[in-house]
Amino acid sequence: MKKILIILMVMWTAPLSAALAGVDSASMVVEWDGGGISVGDYVAWWERIEPAERPPLSTIEEKTEFLESMISASLMLAEAESLGLDEHPNVVDWVTRRRTALLMDELMSRATAGRLEIDEAEVERQYQRRLTQAVASHLIVPTLDEAEAMIDSINSGVPFEDLAVRHSSCASAARGGSLGPVRWGDFSDRWSEQAFRLEPGGVSPPFKVETGYGIVKIESKTLIEPSNPEAERQAIRNRLEKQLHFEEMKVFTDSLRLAYEFEIDVDAVVELCAGYAAKLMELGETREVVDIDVIPDLTESEKAKPVATYEGGSLSTGELVDIILNQPYAVRPELDNPNQMIPLVWRQARDTLLVVEAEKRELDKLPNVAVPLSKVWQRKLTAVLFRHLTQDAEVPEEELRTHYESDKEVHRQPKAHIASKILLTRREKADSLLELIEMGESFEDLAREHSLDPFSAPNGGDLGVVEEGSDEEFDGFFAQMEVGDIRYFRSLEGHLIMWLRERRESRIPTFEQARNVITKAMLPAYKDKILMDWIVAEREELGLTINRSILEQIDLGS
Question: Where are the beta strands (DSSP E) in 379-521?
């Protein structure tokens, strides 16, 4: 299967550059009913593989093996197209996204070519700044009032570390705000400006950061010469080039916005947001809960209404709704907030304008766009075919049992613990929850409501099976607990309430207990066998014939 996938990555009709030692490139190496592979196809596909991954084709055996993989790949693509899988949403959506990305990258590369000149004086200035290494701590709170209260507490003698543990929203709070050694540029320029102007022992005034207001404390400063100064300077150049690219990209996209007379219909966006607000209120949902039920009830005419227009096209309300649904939750705007929705409209239209401009320049016909796109299409198409052929695959019961009985020791499960946890940022919060648990409150309910662990909290804090040796810190906690204990621990993560629900000794599971694990291990190979059997049957049905004399004459200089 792996060899077939390698071939699928390079199946693209390309100019033939290898010498064929007098062999006609149109000669057929293999033929079957309705298709075949020519000498030109054979050589071109081999040349499209990255040089380091090209299989050697010195012997007839090596040439034949490569041809066999090509045959299998060709049959799979033909079958997928005959079944209409090239119109499968997974294929179409993936290829569309990849095409957009390729066209945008190529257009921006051309638009910024020769305009990303790095100022070497700025490189040297930043290099000199980064020679100073500081040991720093910081804390972040939501508002300026809270930050000023932190400064008052520090001035009155409250340790910075205690304030960070109790109040900071940064992950460093568990370490008393400690960031360890840092250099200029490790964080934002604003952060660096505040930190590196301080002397050891100094504390900065509050300053704005992305998630609130920050305060920095510097413990010490040291001058450190990098072991490889030129590598350090090159890293700075790379960062500056990235910044310049971003700035040039903004200038270019703004010019497109003017050239295509792009306009956002603010009233239409506000109307859509009002529809979302009404639906959210109707459902009693929070804005973080977004699914198909939250979409406003839109008529076909309302869906067709443009929220943005540009020369030659528009973005409709219905298209915007679909875009929102396909976005990860973490980056979705507040659906009832026009101030967040309008930037989303612009970003989507910007991408559209870049693609339109790239197509106008016929960049979609360039090999460095067309070739990767062809590879993506082929990989996705054959992946969909593979799932289609193997969707009902099941490993026979007798094979599962034979695998289990052949070496039961392989399935031995190590010692383990069944446990739950609640993760918190403050000791005081942990103590209050422990009191509630002692009074009879449900551990699971408290975990769902208060735990900051995104993985276990939705399951009531359940960690599942924690194998002994998989987490050294947890092993230490469990060694101090009896089954049924609920105890507080200070952890690298923060403040934990741990509940040891069960201990499991090392054991060999029964067949039924091991069935799922065995099936998971055996099913991929079984699916590959189904595919290979299908290829064999397809070859026989098509009456495939290989011209080995022509294959022997192909000389790729390997």
Answer: 416-424, 462-467, 486-490, 495-504
Q: What is the pTM of this model?
A: 0.64
Distance in angstroms (rounded) separating the CA atoms of residues 107 and 148: 48
Residue range 80-106, pLDDT digits in tens: 999 999 999 889 988 998 999 999 999
Residue type at position 526: Y
The residue type found at 494 is G
Query: In the numeric block, which tokens belong to residue 194?
Result: 């505040």
Q: Could you give the residue range(s) of every CATH 3.10.50.40 domain in the chain?
A: 131-225, 413-504
Exposure on the CB side of residue 206, measured as CA atoms within 13 A: 19
Give the span between the Cα atoms of 268 and 314, in whole angstroms: 13
Question: CA 534, CA 401: separation in Å to the nearest integer?
Answer: 26
Distance CA 183, CA 223 (A): 10
Q: What is the pLDDT of residues 126-178, one digit of tens each?
A: 888 888 899 999 999 999 999 999 999 999 999 999 999 989 988 888 889 99
For residues 497 and 422, is the Cβ–Cβ distance under 8 A?
yes
CB 265 within 8 A of CB 308: yes
C-alpha neighbours within 13 Å on the C-beta side of residue 340:
10
Looking at residue 233, its amino acid is: R
Q: Is 262 within 8 Å of 317 (Cβ atoms)?
A: no
Evaluate whether 417 touches 505 at the Cβ level (below 8 Å).
Answer: no
Residues 223 and 408: their CA atoms lie apart, in Å, by 60
CATH topology for the 131-225 domain: Chitinase A; domain 3 (3.10.50)
